[in-house]
Write a structure and sequence with these properties.
The chain is an alpha/beta fold and 324 residues long. The chain folds into two domains: 2-221 and 296-323, Rossmann fold; 226-290, Alpha-Beta Plaits, CATH 3.30.70. The chain is 35% helix and 28% strand. The strands form four sheets. It has a six-stranded mixed beta sheet with strand order 6-7-8-3-9-10, with helices on both faces. It has a four-stranded antiparallel beta sheet with strand order 2-1-4-5, covered by helices on one side. Helix 6 links the parallel strand 7 (153-157) and strand 8 (184-188). Helix 3 (91-101) packs across helix 4 (106-119) and helix 3 packs parallel to helix 5 (135-147). The longest helix has 16 residues, at 165-180. 35% of the residues are buried. Residues 2-232 form the ABC transporter domain. Keywords: ATP-binding, Nucleotide-binding, Transport. One of its GO terms (molecular function) is ATP binding. InterPro entries: AAA+_ATPase, ABC_transporter-like_ATP-bd, P-loop_NTPase. It comes from Dongia mobilis.
């Protein structure tokens, strides 16, 4: 769907993108993550043909977005971090104005406006002024504006910023729905727990370079079976840490009075023996489950252990690094 090749973008005295290359798989939701100043917003603006790179190119469905930006904009939607709405216009008027800006014929706009409002579940606010909407509903209106022309590719920069937990859950549901309808999505956010709810791939940037681009499924598979085990017990056990520490094959990471996180060997036989011992000691064991690796764990591990990709290489979502 989107192919980025050897992008270089400079600000005065600073290289924001340093030979960045990757491909976004059609139908995926890719989480774009990295520390402040990594180049995430610049990358999105270049991909949206709002900035022209010093070198490299961006291909959307095989076409260079900078050769014909208007044609590219008909196939993509983009919601920047700081977006504006016309507060005095109603939801319907905001959407109609955006449809006109997209070149949609007047005779088609009413149906398209209604469809966009329905997809983002703001049809019941169609006659309400944008300035009176809550933060979450304003976000939905902004996304509706970005997708009303039914783009194949959608980019969202920090879409959950400022949203309360309920609004974030609603946003996650919207993005999963759009992906289910065939839209390819690239979303930047610092809220890794939220990204984990709906992302299929992760693209990590650091100092303007790609650290890693891979599917979350592949990363999880590479990690193998989790060595960290979550233990739960039916009642409080005052000396739980001491009793667990007495098992030499087990390392206690954290421990309360009715639960603990421990680290075991990968050997299934030893794990089975430890489980049998815990059950035999009458501790009231109710949970013995591998601890799921979070997106935050993956992010911190990769950022710490892997340097940015070498310039001139294309980092694919499934094949690691391959020459361009």
């Amino acid at each position: 769907m989107l192919r980025v090749e050897n992008l270089i973008y400079d600000y005065p005295g600073h290289r924001a993108l340093d030979d960045v290359s990757f491909e976004v798989e059609a139908g995926s939701i890719t989480a774009l993550v990295g520390p402040n100043g990594a180049g995430k917003s610049t990358l999105m603006r270049v991909c949206a043909a709002l900035e022209r790179p010093f070198a490299g190119r961006v291909l959307l469905a095989g076409a260079n977005v900078h050769d014909n930006p208007r044609a590219a904009h008909r196939r993509m939607g983009f919601l920047p971090d700081f977006y504006g709405l016309y507060d005095e216009l109603t939801v319907a008027q905001c959407l109609d104005y955006r449809a006109a800006a997209q070149g949609i014929a007047r005779t088609e706009r009413a149906a398209i406006v209604a469809m966009a409002a329905a997809r983002l579940e703001i049809a019941d606010r169609i006659d309400q002024r944008a300035g009176t909407l809550s933060r979450g509903l304003r976000q939905r209106l902004a996304i509706a504006q970005a997708i009303l022309h039914d783009p194949a590719f959608l980019m969202l920069d920090e879409p959950a910023s400022g949203l309360d937990p309920a609004a974030r859950i609603g946003l996650s549901a919207v993005l999963r729905q759009l992906a289910g309808e065939g839209m390819t999505i690239l979303v930047s956010s610092h809220i890794l727990a939220e990204l984990q709810d709906y992302s299929t791939h992760i693209l990590m940037l650091k100092a303007g370079r790609v650290v890693e681009h891979a599917s979350l499924e592949r990363i999880a598979a590479e990690g193998g079976a989790s060595r960290d085990i979550r233990l739960g017990f039916a009642a409080n056990i005052p000396d739980l840490r001491r009793r667990l520490s007495a098992i030499t094959e087990l390392e206690v990471i954290t421990c309360g009075s009715d639960e603990a996180l421990v680290r075991l060997t990968d050997d299934p036989a030893i794990r089975a023996a430890i489980l049998a011992r815990l059950a035999a000691e009458g501790l009231g064991l109710t949970c013995f489950a591998p601890e799921r690796r979070s997106l935050q764990d993956i992010y911190l591990e990769r950022m710490r252990d892997r340097p940015p990709a070498r310039p001139g290489l294309l980092t694919g979502p499934e094949n690691g690094e391959a020459g361009t």
